[in-house]
Structure formats: structure tokens, C-alpha cells
Amino acid sequence: MGHAVTLVKDSLPTARKTRSAASATAGRPGRRRENLAGYLFMSPWIAGFLLLTAGPMVASLYFAFTDYNLFNTPKWVGFDNFTKMFDDPRWQKSVEVTAKYVVIGTPLKLLLALGVAMLLAQSRRGQAFYRAAFYAPSLIGASVSVGFVWRSLFSDGAIVDRTQSFFGWHVGGWVGNADWVLYSLVALTVWQFGAPMVIFLAGLKQVPKELYEAAEMDGAGPFRKFWNITLPMISPVLFFNVLLETIHSFQIFASAYVVSNTYCGPADATLVYTCYLYQRGFQNAQMGFASAMAWMLLLAVALVTAVLFWSQKKWVYYEEGAR
After folding, report:
1. How far apart are CA 17 and CA 118, in angstroms?
2. pTM here?
């Protein structure tokens, strides 16, 4: 009897392994079919990525080291495009204009988005209407038609010109003024604060009300509650918005191109980086130079992104207390 029990015990692991192997073998065709179905559904995205994103990126990297004008065979020139780029005064101007636009426009847009989100976070009548109304400009702000409307608003004798003249500020239309035309683009991007506002609003809804109640019991005022509770609690959302809006600001093109009447002026005042890239690549047929500019923009955005991710350790607070 004891010998039989021992044999049964010894055979149990082997039986379990046999059943496991059998079930694994039986499950492999099902898993393969599931994987095949998943790849089938993903195939349009994969094809689009390879043909419309990855392929053109690899081609542009090659063109960046060539003399290519869209009509002749590319000729390898090494780093000549990058050398000419750094010596080009208009390229330097485009970098200056873009940096100014990013540094001024992005913080103003985020400040307005956060302020409106804090107002909408409070319960009041018509809240859904106000949220939709404030979000609407983000849906249409990047369109060409809005660019034409914006140029009309800031032209000589238009409503902005008449309003500032009424208050004794005689500078004329912003579009034709080299000192002010860039600020019309800043005003346009600030007007499109709806998308970061919605994200801020979602973050504000996650802040526990008990923290504010405890702060009020300790005698904290509105500013201290905002600085010591609201900002730390929404810092991950703030970091996300800063990162996203900074990248978007580097990519500005349509509004600058339309508001400046396609010549990015006057006096190159709205010559943002992508506008100059378009001029060199498609108007002057210097696709090699334009490709080099595009990769420099990619490296600049990657550098800024890396700096932001490095800095988040000092000011972004997560639930588990990590910075």
C-alpha cells in the first residue's frame, strides 16, 4: 500500500507538467489567431507610420547631407548645409523670433488656462456652457480662416486699432508694425487656451477638499492654499501642459504664415522657424537645406524636452511623494 502511494505521489508532477504542456500547445493556435487579428487591425496605422512618418524621416535625414532641389539627383555635401545654416542671418533671426514666441506665448497661455480652470472648478449655473465656450477656440484656432480673421482684426483701422486709439494709444495696426506683429500671434495662441484648461480642470477636480478644509482651520488664506496645496497637487498636470504647449509653440506655422500675408514680415518680424524652413524648402527649392533645418528643430525640441524631464524632479510631486 505504501509503495503504491509513493508511486502516485511521484507521478503527480509528471501529470501536471503533461497537462500544462497540452494546454499550452492547445492554446498556441488561439493566441496566434488573436495576435494575427491584432496585427490586422493595427496594419493601417503601421502602414501609415512606415510610409508617412518613418520613411520620410529617414529620407529627410539623408537629404540633410545633400544638395537637393526637388528636381535633380541629390548630391552628397556632408555638413555644408549645417555650416551654411549657422552662418545665415535669416536663420538666426528665425531662431530668435521662435524663442521669443515660445518664451512669451506659452506661459501666458498656461496662466490664463489655469485661471479660467480654477473659476470653472467651482459649482455655478451654466458651467457646461462656459466650458464649451472656452474650449471652442482650441478647435478652430489653428485653421486658415481664423488666421484671416485675426489679420483683419489687427490691421490698420480695424477694431483693435480703433480701440487702442480711443484710449490714446496710437500705434496703428499690429499686422503692419514690425514691433507689434509678433504679439498678435501671441494673442492668437493665448486665445486658444481651451485644451490646457480642460486638462487643468481635470487635475483640480482630483485635489481632495479635506486639504483645503484643514488649511482653512489653520488660518491659511487663498494665496497660501493655492501655493501650498493647489500647485503641488496639480504639478503633474502642470508639467504635462508645459511640455505639450512648449512643443506646440515650436511648431507654429499656419498662423504666422497667414497673419503675415505669406511673407512672414514685416522685416522678418514673424519669421518663425517653420516659416523660414518652408521658404527655403518649397519656395526656393532648397530641400537639402530645409531638411537640415528640420533635424535641427527636432534636436532643439528633444533638448528642451530632456531639460523639462530633468527639472521635474525638483518641482513635480506625485501621490507616492516622489519628485
Report:
1. 60
2. 0.84
**Cα–Cα distance, 113 to 110 (Å, whole number):** 5
Other beta carbons less than 10 A from residue 104's beta carbon: 17
Q: Which three cell numbers stand for residue 71?
A: 528636381
Give the list of residues 6+ apart from residue 96 with CB closer than 8 angstroms, or none. none
Q: Which amino acid makes up residue 150? A: W
Between the alpha carbon of residue 204 and those of residues 89, 113, 207, 315, the distances in Å are 45, 12, 5, 17
- pLDDT for 208-219, tens place per residue? 989 888 988 888
- Which grid coordinates belong to 284? 526656393
| CA 90, 99, 149, 179 torsion-angle sign | negative
Per-residue model confidence as pLDDT tens digits over 75-119: 999 999 999 999 999 999 999 999 999 999 999 999 999 999 999
